[in-house]
Each structure stands twice: as C-alpha cells, then as structure tokens.
Amino acid sequence: MPAWFGHRSVTLIVLAAIVVVLPLLFPSSYYFRVASLVWVSAFAAIGLNILMGQAGQVSLGHAGFFGIGAYAVAIGPAHLGLPSWGALLIGAVISAASAWLVGRPVLRLKGHYLAIATLGLGVLVALVITTESRWTGGPDGMAVAKLSLFGWRASGSSTWYWISGSVLVVGTWIALNLGETPTGRAFRALHDSEIAARVAGIDVARFKLQAFVIAAVYASLAGSMLAMMNGFINPDQAGFLHSIELVTMVVLGGLGSVVGSIVGAAVLITLPQVLTVFQEYEHVLLGLIIIVSMIFMRDGIVPTASKWLARRVRA
Amino acid sequence: MAEFFQFLMSGLTVGAVYALVALGFTLVYNASDVINFAQGEFVMLGGMVTVFVAAAGVPLPLAALIAVVAAVAVGLLLYWLAIEPARGASAVTLIIITIGASILLRGAAQILFDKQFHKLPSFSGDAPVNLFGAAVQPQSFWVLGGTAVIVLLLYAFLERTLLGKAVLATAANRLAARLVGINTATVMALAFGGSAAIGAIAGILITPITLTSYDVGTLLALKGFAAAMLGGMGNPLGAVAGGLLLGLLEAFGAGYISSTYKDAFAFIVILVVLFAMPRGLFGRRVVERV
Predict the structure, then answer these.
(1) Can you state the angle between helices B91-112 and B217-231, rounded to 10 degrees?
(2) Among residues B6, B22, B71, B23, which one has the least CA distance to residue B212?
(3) How far away is chain B from the Cα of A102, in angstroms, using its nearest Cα?
(4) Which candidate in A44, A52, A99, B203 could, as Cys together with A222 as Cys, close a disulfide (CB 3.0–4.6 Å)?
C-alpha cells in the first residue's frame, strides 16, 4: 500500500464521497440548507477541537470569533464598500489578531479560570455587537450582501451546499494533517501534561497561543460563511448559547476526533430539525439527549463507536 | 450624594442575588467538583413556582415554601439521575451535562408555566424608603436581609454541626472523608439540595423587583459563575464578596459610565482580576504536584 493511502486519506475520501453523494438522496432544497448548516458548524467545531481536543484548552466564548467573522462580511460590504471575500479575509485577520492579543494572558489560566475568562471574552464581543446598533443593526441583526466572485453571485441552497461542503473537506484535511505535524504533536504533549511538555523543551505558551489562533480563524471563517449563506445575521450567533453549542458538538462527537466534530455538528444541527415535530417538547428532548449521551458515551460518539467496533472485530 | 446611595443600594440588592447564586456554585463545587450551570434554573424555579402556586390561591409564604421544596426536589433529581451516573467523567463532560439539564429545565418550565414575564407582590408594600436621599424599595431590604440570614445559617451549619463538618471534610479531601466514615454520596446530595434551596430563595426574594420568566436562569448562572470566580472558586466567603462586588460594579458602571454596557463592566473587571490574580480575589495559591 503506498504511504499516502493512510488512515487520513481514507477519512478524507469518505467525507468527500458523502458530500458528493448526499444530494442524490435529497428530496427538496430544504435538505440542502440543513446539510449546509451542518457543514458550516462542523467546520467551526473542527477548529475548536484543535484547541480543546488536541491542545486541551477550554473555550466557552468561541462564538465570539464566529460573530466577528459573521459581522465582518455584513459590515464590510454594507458600510465600507468592501467586497464580501475581502471582508471575510479581514474578519479572519481580526479574529486571529484578537485571539493572539488576548490569548497570551488568558491562556496562562487553567481549568475553570480559563473557562470564565474565555466566556467573558465571548460575552464582551456579543455585547459590543448588540450595543453598537449603528453598525450592526443591534439586537435585530442586519442583512448580509451575497458573495460574488468575478461577477458570479453565490445564492441558493445548493450553491452554498457545494461551497460549504468543499470548505469543510479542506478544513478537515488541514486538521487531520496538523495532528501529525510537530505542532500537532506538541499540542498533544501539552494536553497530556503541561509540565512534562515543558520539560521536553516545548514552548507551552507559544503552542497554546497557536492552537487558540487557529481555532479562532476556523470559527471566523465559519461565521462568515453562515452569514453570507443566510443573507442575514443577528447577535445570537455570537452569544453564549452558541458558544456552548459549539463546545457540545466537539465533546458529543469526541474530543480530539476530527470526524467526531463533524458527527457532533450533524447530531446537534439535525436534532432540532427533527424535534420540531414535537415542537413544545423540543428543548426538553434536546436537554435529555445531551444528558443521556454524555452519561453513556463519555468519550463522545465517534471514539465510543470505534471502540465498540474494535471489540466486535476482535471477538 | 443621593445618586451615589441610589446606585449603592441597587448594586447591593442585585449583588446579593449574584452572591446567592455564587454560593450555590461554590457549595456544589466543593462537595463534588462539578460546576453546575443549572444553578440559574433554581432561581427561575423559585420565582416561577411561587408565582403560579400563589396564583392558584395559596397564601404567599406557603407558596414560597412549596417553591423551595420543588427546587430541592429538582436539585436532588439532578444529582441522582444525571451527576451520580456520570461519576468519574471529565470536568467538561460534567459541565455539558449540567448545561443539558438547564436546557431541559427551561424547556419544562416553558411547557408547565408559559413564556410570559411574571411579578410577585412586594412583601411589605411598595412605598419607597428614604435613605440618605435615595429612594429604596422595601423589597431591597428583604433581599439583603434574606441573603444575610442564609449566609449566617450556612456558616453556622458548616462550622457548628457534625453534618456541616462532614461537608467541609468532603470538600477538603473526598477520599480521606470516605475513609473516616463520611457518606460522601449523602454529602453531595445535600450540596445539590442545599444549593437548589438557596437559589430558589434568591429567586423568590428578587422576583418582586426584577420579574421572572422561564429563561432568566442563563444570565443569572453566568453572573453567579463570574462572581464565584471573582471571589475564588470554592470559597464561600469569596462567593458572597464576589457577588456583592459584581452587583456594585454593574450599578456604578451603569450609573456613571454607560448603561448600555452594564453587563460588560463585570466581565472586564473579572478579566483584569484574573490576569493579575489567576486564582481570583480570595483564592488560595495551589501548588501543582507532578
């Protein structure tokens, strides 16, 4: 078997195949929309998983970066006359810069203290977005210009399905490969024991900061995509509950598992769509499902399933 | 000067509620190492159950008692059905379980009650009291007095009773506590029940001032968590101080600087405090063993 046909290639090929084949099963454009939502959320979750799963640092304010990306593509074209793709890049740069700036002091903190500090950052971003209504439309949100490249305008659920699907495959490819680079190995080393990593000569502060910046850029790009896809954005996307949703996707799918983040996003996005049948009971059922799956699948869906499969194969 | 006292009183009143929520976080955290994000839902339950039981014709004190009992029952169920079965799970997993519980409780409240805002009558009338030129709601004194009583009772319980000492022992070292014959499972159930009762009382006391609805818990949990961290996680006195400080910061920030960024001051100050003192204001320095 050639060296390039490793575990990572298989994962990537299967994912690409799913993205390509899935539309054949879709009876209506509504399914394209839900699937696009899954791809976009999965992209953000994969980024957060690099921070949480690989580097072992919690962020409870990650939707803040999602919000920065989303509002960049909203404000850029509307107030500054920028093209959407330019605003998307600027949003990613702002997210990276702010993650870099606040990351240094914040990532010195550990455990619950890191949790509250990142939560505070997220709350602050959401607050600024809600309050500066002259720029952001305040709590009501604002319209977002359509993405246009060389005169071609991206609109319609199926167009966005292909864009978000392709971006997800690229993001997955990068995340899978990152895990095998010296950087990825350094992340895992400081996840297991920061002190041991430091003794081994790893610049702990630098790698934590790198993971934080990478995760922020992933979230920002996802935010931009969602905003352009919906053609509308409101502060909820930057809020605490959305941060929690992202963390839940990562943990539910499996910390440290790139595929897990995609599965986690798929579960958490499609569940409410299915549960609308039960409308009134939607939240009760959602809460119940989160509790039950976290009790019985502590490692997350994908690691639990692969462990179960491995046991079956051996038996 | 009247303005100053006005902000001082409103800050202390809201701060007292944050302090009670933070106390609930601390109690559960000490006994079980769990950050219970459903803590805000106990406050919601306290207010909502009282409103609806009172509306059914039950006198207010009895309705309040029923609300506290209901919240304690929910707290115990949360421990037995969700936390206990997940024993040994990682901190993030446990946090997500409690967040799941808070979503569930909010959804249940929405079905059981409704989506409207509700008010309780003030316990002793609405005629404002003049204090150094500031007009103070009588209910503010109920909130501050109630908080003081709870803090003193909790202190007496922890320091003066055998069961309270068992709680402290469990908080200090769970294994050692079990070895000297303390039933740590009972202590943890007690912590969940106790924090639910404290939260519910906070909800009942504050509802005449701030109103209540099925979704007030989220923001309260955030502020309570922030207050507990500000004081230093796991320190009951720190929780009370952190809560009061947070309330004052908000009131003075809103009054003197900008009311639209009221919620921002608290978090900015917390970030600044954590940068300078990574264990919070009253947190102990912990030496990490390798």
Answers:
(1) 150
(2) B71
(3) 10
(4) A44
Pick among 1.20.144, 2.40.50, 1.10.3470, 1.20.58: CATH of A29-314: 1.10.3470
Q: Is B230 a domain residue?
A: no
Q: Strand A232-233 to strand A142-143: parallel, antiparallel, or no bridges (unpaired)? A: antiparallel
For residue B67, give its domain range.
17-116+125-217
Tell me: ipTM over 0.95.
no
Between chains, do A127 and B110 touch, taking CB under 8 Å as contact? Answer: no
Instruction: Count structural domains, chain B.
Output: 1
Angle at A226 between CA A220 and CA A229, to 5 degrees: 140
Would you call B107 and A294 a contact, using CB atoms and an 8 Å cutoff?
no
What does the pLDDT look like over A112-153, one tens digit per residue?
A: 888 888 988 898 999 999 988 888 888 888 988 888 776 677
Interface test with B, best of A102, A106, A294, A297 (most B CBs within 10 A): A294
CA distance B163 to A251: 36
Tokens 């995340």, located at residue: A175
User: Mind telling me how many Å the CA of B55 is from chain A's nearest CA?
Assistant: 23
Instruction: Decide if B153 is inside a domain.
Output: yes
Task: Look at A290 and B97 and tell me if their CB atoms are within 8 Å.
Answer: yes
Distance CA A255, CA A259 (A): 10
- Single pTM value for the model: 0.88
